[in-house]
Design a protein that fits this description.
homodimer, Farnesyl Diphosphate Synthase, globular, 16 helices
Chain lengths: 357, 357
């Protein structure tokens, strides 16, 4: 396998940023033409989309295309960048559902619009207004994602070829989100179920399907798509497990979320399910009692962290992340992926699983 | 203009029903294959989509196509039917935003899922669970709408030709919804602004854009699209005004909503704006005091109805509905619309504005 050139990854990130910036500027102008009151909608979406980010899904889509022999064009970069808008919809709606305060170190969209309502001294409940605005803004991002994909400049027959994969990815995302909400509501029922949520909510949606979309757009055959699955599913699961670890042990200055946010939200992650499986009864009772307490303070977070670490669940999850990443790389090396693409996919595996934010 | 054959309208409604039924059955099976827990999601969407309804948007899309000389095929019926799924997203999310209890005579989706949560004795807040489920189900309907359109069997180049119009329609819908939410929050600022909300939220989205979509898919030129606008915008405004009247004076057995629901929700409609414009100070104070009171009872509804009627606003709105409908029909007769299509569009104008539910 060729040496990885990290410049490829950084360069693509810049091009995604540029494509998103241009697209959003055009759409924001169209909103402003409808009514001045839509100003804050466009501004907030711009801010949300353009403040950096890992751009993992566009990267997987782009390299799925390249790996299938597709040429490097601005059109495919624009098409791949549209996945960031889809992801924005998922995050904005997720924050409404979880009642989260912050996202990427800023107020969540629903909180920002509640603040707008309060600042203007409008009638009714500011939080209700914020929720309504965020629901509509999430919908708008979902629609803009289509617009950006369909308006990317890729030919009609190429886009049509990708439509089923694109739609399947989006359905799986929403199905995974629903399963996640149900899992929280039933209070979690073990590691296997938490892994299934991670499969749909993250593994397929973040890695496998973006690779497939790029591949299908470039005309990839079933063998290559199977290799993308062999790489994407374990890596996607590792990606979600890394998220679980960061949600409990992450540094707020890197994650953009308060320390131990997943504990306060009561998330039934694989990490938590493993800790509950392995904990002595007294420790398990501590976890069950405090998990989901919105007022959990720093000391409470530290206590739960100590229990989760003490059960060995943290070490077990870290080891699982390592094994899944190896499995993903093995899946990749067995495949007929273009050399340059394979090298980048190898380096992206590290970006997805060894990250700290 | 040829005589209208009302069978055309009823027959299309049956075909839309069949297309939706088949599409949803396939998608629901795909959800069930992911996880049993998704059963209630598919069931609720089926129930929501298949319990009848006026099917106005598919009708406008279909006749927009026929009016441009497009042939009658099952593919175009499937494409047009997808607008019902888009509309389902708008209604499901709207009910979350308004906190509505019922829709089409049944519990709103968020209420149905709150009841599921309660029935299962799950953890956490049932209403919060219901809201989360309804946000995701609305998202899913928005995605399924695309799937149904893209999978309708229309050729790739035809679909690609329609994509910009389709996306514009959806953006205008969400923009209109946001303007509506802002209008309620600022407490309304007169008839002109309420008319602008109606323009984006309803007139363009319900009539003009579905006609355009059908027309563009069939390859219509700018003159025909302009005629569709001349018909669609005034008719769509009349449609919204009829909705405003029904929201205050409608019969619950026909509207599927509690009597005076718009008053309880505090909707700042054109009807209410006109009543406030025309009311004596004492009467205006009564309206302002009770509008948006969630506990407004039957006697309160009757009192507000009497004020709105007494100001002459009801008669003024009825007269405006009549004038706008005439204007729409004049717009139609000036155009190069296929005769059969023109006859049906004329009869649809009555269906949109003289309805009682």
């Amino acid at each position: 396998m060729a040496d990885t050139d990290p410049l490829d990854v950084a360069d693509l990130r810049d091009r995604v940023q540029k494509a998103l910036g241009e697209f959003i500027a055009g759409q924001t102008a169209a909103l402003d033409a409808i009514a001045d009151e839509l100003g804050p909608v466009g501004e907030r979406i711009s801010e949300f989309l353009l403040d950096g980010g890992k751009r993992l899904r566009p990267a997987y889509c782009y390299w799925g295309w390249r790996g299938a022999g597709g040429a490097d064009t601005d059109e495919v970069v624009a098409a791949a960048s549209s996945l960031e808008l889809l992801h924005a919809c998922a995050l904005i709606h997720d924050d409404v559902m979880d009642g989260s305060d912050t996202r990427r170190g800023r107020p969540a969209v629903h909180r920002a619009f509640a603040a707008l309502h309060r600042g203007e001294g409008w009638l009714g409940d500011p939080e209700g207004f914020g929720r309504s605005a965020a629901i509509l803004i999430g919908d708008l991002c979902l629609i803009w994602a289509d617009r950006m994909l369909n308006g990317s400049g890729l030919p009609a027959d190429v886009l049509h070829r990708g439509a089923a994969t694109y739609d399947e990815m989006r359905v799986e995302l929403m199905a995974g989100q629903y399963l996640d909400v149900v899992e929280q509501a039933i209070g979690g029922r073990g590691v296997d179920r938490a892994m299934r949520v991670a499969l749909y909510k993250t593994a397929k949606y973040t890695i496998e399907r973006p690779l497939h979309l790029g591949g299908v757009l470039a005309g990839a055959g079933p063998e290559l798509l199977a290799a993308y699955t062999a790489y994407g599913i374990p890596l996607g699961q590792a990606f979600q497990l890394r998220d679980d670890v960061l949600g409990v042990f992450g540094d707020p200055s890197e994650t953009g979320k308060p320390a131990g946010d997943d504990l306060r939200e009561g998330k039934r992650t694989v990490l938590v399910a493993m800790a509950l499986d392995r904990a002595e009864p007294d420790d398990a009772a501590v976890v069950r009692r405090h998990l989901g307490d919105p007022h959990l303070d720093g000391a409470g977070v530290d206590r739960l962290r100590a229990v989760i670490d003490g059960t060995g669940a943290l070490a077990e999850v870290e080891s699982l992340i390592g094994r899944l990443t190896e499995q993903a790389l093995a899946g990749l090396s067995s495949a007929q992926v273009d050399d340059a693409a394979a090298a980048v996919l190898e380096s992206l595996a590290t970006a997805a699983t060894a990250r700290t934010g």
